[in-house]
Design brief:
The chain is built from four helices and 30 strands. With 408 residues, the chain is mainly beta. The two termini are 22 Å apart.
Length: 408
């Protein structure tokens, strides 16, 4: 299907936008020219498109030069059931305006100014320093939101609250509040990186982990992850059985990887008292998990960096490494349900040297020639796309998106 430059980088989300039981996509664009023209910051255009390439609706201003991106990372838009009525909506941020839009039509349902930032004292800046690219997150009066997530800090059983963050300021918003989208609480810290929410202490309410900060359901700071440095990646793995076995992984490149028992962070000073498992001897980026090998108990963990993939067993003991030709992305591989076997495969990168590999690092599926012909730069997995429940692979560049399914 044609994209016509409407997606900047990886900024595509697959969802049943119009409720017809079929998959559509949300494509987000960031254009420096448009941002300057109409005073936006990150997201400048959001488009809902069906798989025939028909535009269902569009918000913002599209740029004819879709490659002229002002932001290359993730843009602030999400598809989610905010109201708990089984009718998901689109949550997005244009400039300093957070919006909730009707998913089928794009109609604006509600909007509000993004939460205010917390000022940093001149005394603190004098000690730490200014200039040289140092940012404190108070350069604007309101949050220039870069990430959106969802949580349940009220214990309703549904993740209906909206988390917004600019990397330094975080706020949890109530979509049913008066005034509109009023913050339940706010927090300031080193929040660069991903956002995770879940019930760590078993009280039915979500805690939040963002960057270095571990927040209780009331917004109070429970702990700080000492080993989390700028550029680190954070991965949380839920357990299907016990909270005690939840894993929190901090990967910090050539500094190695730290693996925590996630429950330890609900105790005061846990990051000081609890000694994490330290994994050295490699360069580690994002970690993923899945059932990759039948001969090992439980799930296995995988981390990729540059041209090397590293495998770990369920206890994070290293069980193998494998090298591939070509550069691999820092956002990690994708676990794929591709066969009729319980074991999953891994999509390492969208070029033929890698293809789909098994839990031993062996390539078992070769990607079609079209991957090389089109020069796809981005890729992802569409869970359960096939009629039998297996996954599909999506790959795209600026101009075109393609979906691939198992040949059989």
């Amino acid at each position: 299907m044609p994209l016509n430059g409407l997606a900047t980088g990886r900024n595509i989300e697959f969802a049943d936008v119009d409720g017809d039981g079929k998959l559509e996509i949300l494509a987000a664009q960031s254009s420096r020219d448009v941002a300057e023209q109409i005073s936006l910051t990150r997201l400048t255009c959001l488009t809902a498109i069906n798989l025939d390439g028909k535009i269902l609706w569009q918000a913002g201003m599209p740029s004819a030069d879709g490659t002229n991106g002002s932001v290359t990372g993730s843009l602030p838009f999400r598809f989610h059931d905010v109201f708990g009525d089984k009718h998901p909506v689109v949550v997005c941020v244009f400039g300093y305006d957070i919006q909730i839009r009707h998913a089928k039509t794009g109609r604006l349902m509600m909007s509000a100014q993004t939460p205010s930032t917390t000022a940093v004292s001149d005394e603190f800046k004098a000690v730490v320093g200014v200039g040289g690219g140092i940012r404190y997150g108070d350069e604007t009066l309101n949050m220039d939101v870069s990430r959106i997530a969802f949580c349940d800090t009220q214990g309703t059983g549904l993740k209906k609250e909206i988390i917004v963050s600019d990397g330094f300021n975080l706020a949890v918003l109530d979509p049913l509040a008066e005034p509109t989208l009023y913050p339940i609480f706010k927090h300031r810290g080193d929040l660069r990186g991903g956002i995770w929410s879940g019930d760590l202490d078993g009280d039915g309410k979500d805690e939040i982990i963002a960057g270095k900060s571990v927040l209780n359901d009331d917004g109070s700071l429970l702990n700080t992850i000492q080993n989390y440095l700028p550029g680190s990646s954070l991965s949380i793995f839920d357990s299907a059985t016990e909270i005690q076995s939840m894993r929190l992984c901090v990967s910090n490149g050539d500094e190695g990887m730290w693996v925590y028992n996630a429950k330890e962070f609900v105790r005061p000073n846990a990051s000081n008292d609890h000694r994490p498992q330290r994994i050295r001897g490699g360069y580690y980026s994002h970690v993923v998990t899945g059932k990759l090998r039948a001969d090992l108990p439980g799930d296995q963990f995988v981390s990729t960096a540059f041209d090397t993939i590293t495998f770990f067993d369920a206890n994070f003991n290293k069980i193998g490494t494998h090298q591939f030709e070509g550069y691999m992305p820092f956002d990690g591989p994708r676990v794929v349900n591709w066969t009729d076997k319980p074991e999953r495969l891994l999509l390492i990168a969208a070029h033929q040297q890698c293809g789909l590999v098994d839990g031993f690092g062996d390539r078992v599926v070769t990607l079609p020639d079209e991957f090389a012909e089109h020069g796809y730069r981005e890729w992802d997995v569409i869970p359960g796309y096939c009629a039998d429940g297996r996954d599909a692979l999506a790959a795209w560049n600026t101009d075109v998106l393609s979906i691939f399914v198992p040949a059989e």
